[in-house]
Design brief:
This protein has about 500 residues and is an alpha/beta fold. The chain folds into 3 domains: about 240 residues, P-loop containing nucleotide triphosphate hydrolases (Rossmann fold), CATH 3.40.50.300; about 180 residues, 3-Layer(aba) Sandwich (Rossmann fold), CATH 3.40.50; about 70 residues, no CATH class. It has 17 helices and 24 strands. It has a 6-stranded mixed sheet, with helices on both faces. The radius of gyration is 24 Å and the shape is globular.
């Protein structure tokens, strides 16, 4: 039997106007953790969708050789039958169903024509043991943490006898503890003979876990590196990914001109009726003109809740107390449109669900938050709309064949740029960026950091919420730390270290 469980030979895949993959060759050894890296739009997810049957045989050219046999998967089900399982970034679980129902959904354990629920629960418990998840299988998915949902997805894969596990950005939405737990699990599974392909933008994780790293760029295979034969460094990976060396991922600003306080929050307390408790307690923060202020904290610390409550009370939180002032004027926002009018914009952490209309094009999404600028009465001036969209496409380097490209067909990094373009078009004084680089590659990150620096140099103020501690430390002029809905510390860029921030982030 071949050392390779998988060989993908000369895979080419085209979409209208775009060649996503061009003669890609990709080989995976049996029982290894193989990391697939590249910039957004490099073709990583497309290649894995070809492998898993999402793009069926006939829609691409080239061969898939799995376990020594050429495969022609016409569906996901056919790929799963051979032992291939893909776990996407957007988890395919049903929130209202139990854990055991989700694990065996679509391949139920039958007793004649009736589902054998007792056996289902017993088997589900076994699958959960495999992924080291000690929970009641009767729990509903909606009551689990994101990290535990990820493990349920893997348990589901094992219930289908998966031998090759594909994980697309598995730690993108996880905190550091959950991420490390998942990586430890992958190491354990490797010892049990399971082969893993992992797509990730977190180079630190890749260096720590990969047996082999394959780099794609612009739909082509650039190289494969064997971690047992050479030292693989983050800089080495970056060089092959972007085609150049990036010495400092966090670009330094040339002209730092920080002015007076332009955004001031005093004694801000908020009650969440859904959870029936106070979620923010006496928050005091301020932002100066031309300043990047970071907000750090662990998942669940209240960072996103703070942003939502400031931006016109989107989830209908009850503001118990507090004041917002912009440029010294007290403001009250009953709706996001009030916040936008006052000069506050909020780029959400979930661009696909809340930030963009995926079935619409770049042009539509760029202007949607400020339609007044492109309308004559009730009629949209399409020529003006096109001009503005093209201007933003060029200025912030949105990579797409045209502004009529549907958002859902863009890479994560380019989707994020469109989300930024949408809010830049409203010309805010203060821009809140919630996880601005989640799920995007190092090259796109660098572009977004550079853009942030340009914006504050022009006098805009930015609040950046991020779970990536190094990002917060690398980009902030000043930062606040949150824990359990409270501000537990304020630090200058000079005084902030990973240790001091984490100490403050774990205070009760």
């Amino acid at each position: 039997m071949s050392d390779y469980i998988l060989e993908m030979q000369n895979i080419t895949k085209e979409f209208p106007g775009v060649k996503a993959l061009s003669n890609v060759n990709f080989k995976v050894k049996r029982g290894e953790i193989h990391c697939l890296v590249g910039e957004n739009g490099a073709g990583k997810s497309t290649l894995m969708k070809v492998l898993s049957g999402v793009y069926p045989f006939g829609t691409y050219s080239g061969n898939i050789v799995y376990n020594g046999q050429i495969q022609q998967f016409k569906s996901i089900a056919e790929s799963e039958e051979t032992g291939i399982a893909i776990i996407n970034q957007e988890l395919a679980l049903i929130p209202e169903l139990s854990v055991y129902e989700n694990i065996y959904f679509g391949h139920e354990i039958m007793d004649g024509k009736v589902i054998n629920w007792n056996q289902t629960i017993i088997n589900a418990q076994e699958m959960l043991k495999k992924v080291r998840l000690n929970i009641n299988p009767s729990m509903k998915i909606k009551n689990l943490s994101v990290g535990n949902r990820q493990l349920v997805e893997i348990a589901k894969a094992f219930s289908k006898n998966a031998k090759l596990l594909i994980l697309d950005e598995p730690t993108a939405a996880l905190n550091e503890d959950d991420s490390e737990n998942l990586l430890d699990l992958l190491r354990e599974l490797k010892e049990q003979g399971v082969t893993c392909i992992m797509i990730s933008h977190k180079l630190k994780e890749i260096v720590s876990i990969a047996d082999t790293v394959t780099v794609l760029r612009d739909g082509s295979t650039i190289c494969s590196m064997d971690a047992h034969a050479q030292d693989i460094t983050e800089q080495e990976i970056i060089k092959y990914m972007v085609g150049r060396e990036i010495e400092n991922i966090y670009p330094k600003r040339e002209n730092i001109k920080i002015g007076d306080v332009c955004f001031d929050i005093k004694n801000w307390s908020v009650y969440d009726p859904v959870h029936g408790r106070e979620i923010l307690h006496d928050i005091n923060i301020n932002v100066r003109k031309g300043e990047i202020v970071g907000i750090a904290g662990l998942m669940g610390s209240g960072r996103t809740e703070l942003a939502l409550s400031l931006f016109g009370n989107v989830p209908e939180y009850k503001i118990i107390s507090g004041e917002i002032s912009i440029d010294g004027e007290l403001k009250k926002f009953k709706h996001p449109k009030d916040a936008i009018k006052a000069g506050l914009a909020y780029a959400t952490e979930d661009r696909k669900r809340d930030g963009l209309v995926l079935i619409q094009d770049i042009k539509y999404n760029t202007t949607i938050a400020n339609l007044e600028r492109v309308t004559n009465g009730i009629i949209i001036n399409e020529n003006e709309e096109i001009r503005i969209a093209k201007e933003f496409q060029e200025s912030i380097n949105i990579k797409a064949p045209s502004i009529k490209q549907k958002i859902g067909n863009l890479s994560g990094g380019n989707q994020q740029k469109v989300s930024l373009a949408k809010w830049l078009f409203v010309e805010p004084k203060v821009l809140i960026l919630d996880e601005p680089t989640r799920g995007i590659d190092v090259g796109a990150k660098f572009e977004i950091y550079t853009l942030m620096n340009q914006l504050v140099e022009q006098g805009m103020s930015i609040i950046m919420i991020s779970s990536e501690l190094l990002e917060i430390l690398g980009m902030s002029d000043r930062l606040y730390v949150m824990s359990h809905g409270k501000i537990t510390g304020e630090l200058s860029a000079e005084d902030a270290t990973e240790q001091t921030v984490m100490t403050m982030a774990t205070r009760v």
